[in-house]
Specification:
Layout lengths: L1 H12 L2 E6 L6 H11 L3 E7 L9 E5 L4 H11 L6 E4 L7 E5 L11
Parallel strand pairs: 1-2, 1-5, 3-4
Antiparallel strand pairs: 3-5
Length: 110
């Protein structure tokens, strides 16, 4: 199936994803981490974003893009191209997802 193929591509890339909470909602990053791991993503850490008022989720790409994982995350979180940033290569991560208010439990209880 296309879903299974996408999952295999994500696992093959093994991109290191960190999840950052960009809201005031406690525990949001950990809940998103658990869901992403369940979906086959290699989530290597969680933390808080630089601020807590992200209304919409964002993606930060470090170094060379891991395209299958990027595409899957953009789709998964409904992130448009204008909310994608690139940064220099990082030793400990390939991608960071900043979870915004659009993913909070109050906004989307899924």
């Amino acid at each position: 199936s296309p879903e299974e193929e996408a999952r295999q591509n994500i696992q093959a890339e093994s991109a290191r994803v960190i999840v950052l909470n960009g809201t005031v909602e406690k525990g949001l990053a950990s809940r998103v981490q658990a869901r992403l791991i369940n979906e086959g993503f290699n989530v290597t850490g969680v933390g808080n974003a630089d601020r807590a008022d992200y209304g919409l989720s964002e993606l930060i790409i470090y170094g060379d893009p891991k395209q299958a994982t990027i595409d899957a995350l953009l789709t998964r979180f409904g992130i448009s191209e204008d909310r994608v940033r690139t940064q220099p290569d990082a030793d400990d991560k390939d991608l960071a997802i900043i979870v915004g208010g659009d993913q909070s439990e109050t906004a989307a209880a899924n």
